[in-house]
Amino acid sequence: MSEAPAPDAPPSKDDRSLTGFYVAICILLGLVCLGTWIWTLIPKWPFDAAEARRRQVEASERLGLPVEKTVDLGDGVVMELVLIPAGSFKMGSPDNEAGRAGREGPGHRVRITRAFYIGKHEVTQEVWEKVMGNNPSNFKGAKNPVECVSWDDCQEFLKKLNALGKERGQFRLPTEAEWEYACRAGTRTRFCSGDADAGLADYAWFDVNSGSTTHPVGTKKPNAWGLFDCHGNVWEWCADWYEEAYYGKSPKDDPTGPAVGSARVLRGGAWNGNPGGCRSACRTYSTSAPPAPRDPLIGFRVVGGAVSAGH
Questions:
Q1: What is the DSSP string of 47-113?
Q2: Is it true that domain 67-306 has CATH number 3.40.50.1820?
């Protein structure tokens, strides 16, 4: 009679420890890979100028659109637009930012869900005159920003511009969120140039260097997206109604401001402002009720609209 086979020996304590070690390593590696994948899906902000340009080019290639485009209004008068990629940022200023006003908080995360074109420059007097047939500006100069225009005046300009057949029906004022996102160009600092007042003079016309007048657009340095004069020269109208407490209830995606109001948002500072008034987060307002104010401190830039749903 043959002998029954001996039962397998139970695994030793060392074998069990080794198996557990390998399982733990596999789990750890899996978690690292998962975390890395999730991290790649989260838009990183703030980011530097090189990353801003990379995102801009990537959006251009994905959408099949140029980073910059020109709208020819005839007789050598053009409007230049710059593509701003979709993304998210923290809108407003931190409590300890120098020059901060109470209406700049609370800081809140905002997502711009679709890429859009925005004016490379503030709307110039020659562009306004080509469209409207007049020039209301106090400080005359074809390449200087148009000023002494009310919010309602801007709406009439946009109506006539869109009727020309050039990008018909697309031009509008930026929302306040679009404006700040475009101005910051990936930065979290007081200005697109950093936190220091001293560096602002390279990017803006304001009280220390303007000589109490506006200046031709595009004569200072651009931000990382390629936009000029986001700080200083003239305040810029936004589409939104103004409400001091709006940030506390703003939606996360593509906020458009309160539903009603009596004043419209202004951004960017002007030729007479101090550095604090030219910060990326600085916001003020002017009434839009008749009789509409027309001020040599106030102009605007246009947005070309969202370029593609879902981008």
A1: --HHHHHHHHHHHHHHHT--SEEEEEEETTEEEEEEEE--EEEEES--TT-TT--GGG-S-EEEEE-
A2: no
